[in-house]
Specification:
Length: 129
């Protein structure tokens, strides 16, 4: 399972790539693998704001639908329009072309609530038991 070292992770299997006071958000390799073939994605509008833990969208696969949760409070600066037409990119490249939204981070203190790659790997191993 691919768990990049330069990202932060949530217990809901979202990842956050920090870029100054902005961040890029997507779902983890574990999440896309669990969902299987993703067929639909619903993303927010640019300018929408969400609190940490609030649902910002929905991803649907042939197996299930799942809410997408904000890793930290933020305002949506951009969405990955390409995913609307090709949601399968989330399966093939969850940390690259499968990114979902770019946000302005509104509360940097919330970053302390997220896991690094080692903590996330341990969390997944414990969850599987």
């Amino acid at each position: 399972m691919n768990i990049p070292k330069d990202l932060l992770y949530t217990e809901d299997d979202e990842w956050l790539l920090l870029d100054g006071d902005e961040g890029v958000v997507g779902i983890t390799d574990y999440a896309q693998d669990s969902l299987s073939d993703i067929v639909y994605l619903e993303l927010p509008e640019v300018g929408d704001s969400f609190e940490q833990g609030e649902a910002f969208g929905v991803v649907e696969s042939v197996k299930a639908a799942a809410d997408l949760y904000m890793p930290v409070s933020g305002e949506v600066l951009a969405i990955n329009e390409a995913l609307v037409d090709e949601p399968e990119k989330i399966n093939s490249d969850p940390y690259g072309e499968g990114w979902m939204i770019r946000i302005k981070i509104l509360n940097a203190d919330e970053l302390d609530d997220l896991m690094d790659d080692v903590a996330y790997r341990t969390y997944l191993e414990e969850r599987e038991d």
